[in-house]
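Progress against Task 2.4 (sequence-to-structure conversion) is shown through the following example record, which the project officer requested during the mid-term review.
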Amino acid sequence: MQVVPMRKSAQAVIEKRRKSAEKEISAQKAVSLSNLYEQLSAGKVKELGIILKTDVQGSVEPIRNSLEKLSNDEIKVSMLHAGTGNITRVIYC
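Structure tokens generated for the chain above:
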């Protein structure tokens, strides 16, 4: 929180922060399989966090076990969350 003497000053601070936030967001690249592979190959990523969602409960455990077996000395695969249901939104982090 920042106190300013006039409304005009407050609007200037808001605009400056908005532009700064937009620059940070535009600088971030969306994660894709190709750039994820590049980061893994370069050694930039040491742990791969996965959120697994399947349509039926019977699929969760076999897929979870298979993914966790992929861990090795170079990269650790960790399950952040696993569950069942409809996929409603895809988020790339």
